[in-house]
Amino acid sequence: MTVFVTGGTGTIGSAVVAELLSAGHSVVALARSDSSEQALKSAGAEVLRGSLADLDVLRAGAAQADGVISLAFGRDYGTPEALAASIAEETAAMATLGEALIGSDRPIVSVSGTPWVPGRASTEADPAPTDGPVGQRGRSINALLALASQGVRATAVRMPRTVHNQGRGGFAGLLTEAARRTGIAGYPGDGTQRWPAVHALDAAVLFRLALESAPAGTVWHAVADEGDAVRDIASVVGRRLGLPVESVPEETFGPFGPIFAMDQPSSSVLTRETLGWQPTHPSLLTDLENIE
Q1: Which SUPFAM superfamilies match (predicted)?
Q2: Does residue 238 lie within any of the structural domains?
């Protein structure tokens, strides 16, 4: 099928584009810059120029495709205001893409985060959070999934806090960036809180499986590692960078500080059993050994 992809040059998106092409699909990807266009063309994708804010371009991309994978998200989330603006842009884009597919029975796969459930690993049956600093993302996903009743095969792949590749990406990547900036491989609290993780190449396979076969209105978890202690993650970062490993204030991590401090393991048992997804790439702690 021909698949319209937004966010096709990011950590997840570049892996998804490669996975789709290797599986025999055609890809038309959104590109907002010359460098993104060149990267996508080099990968073998066709390009539609525009940004996530160009709603008419998004409609055109969806109109020419057999399916859509929506991955794009704003790059500026260093402050609460910037994060809110990025979420608002994503919300409008997903609504536009979903509306363009009404009555077509074509698939759209969106991306969100695994939920937090006190005292246990979250599962695919748990609802997305709809409050807090990223609650609007949950509400947007719920609205998209509700289009299943209007002839849209809408599904969502929930990503863990860290999507990694060659030691980069996700919350672990932000922790590494903070370590380089502050000179301390820090973690909030006592560091026993757990973060789930997945290799980007494994996540890409799940996006393809959801696109090809997941029923409308369903939610899936791209979780390979159910939960690594943040202190263990920081320990690898500190060792690789030659920095001390210490507890630091939540504020060190900006608007993500309260989320960094949460214990948030997650399970993908249903996803593996139903879609036949099986992660095969290195775990987070192994992959972090690539930090230089």
Answers
A1: NAD(P)-binding Rossmann-fold domains
A2: yes
Residue 250: helix, strand or coil by DSSP?
A: helix
Alpha helices in the chain (DSSP H): 11-22, 34-43, 55-63, 80-100, 135-145, 170-182, 200-213, 230-241, 257-260, 269-275, 284-287
Instruction: State the average pLDDT over residues 3-26.
Output: 97
- The residue assigned the tokens 């979420």 is 87
Question: 274 lies in a domain?
Answer: no
Tell me the whole-structure pTM to 2 decimals. Answer: 0.94
* Phi-psi region at 176: left, alpha or beta (left = phi > 0; alpha = psi -120 to 50): alpha
Nearest to 36 by CA among 83, 64, 60, 71: 71
Q: Which residue has the tokens 């804010």?
A: 53
Q: Which domain holds residue 247?
A: 167-195+227-265+281-290
User: Quick one: pLDDT at residue 73?
Assistant: 80
CATH code for the domain in which residue 95 is found: 3.40.50.720
Q: At what angle do helices 200-213 and 11-22 cross, to 10 degrees?
A: 60
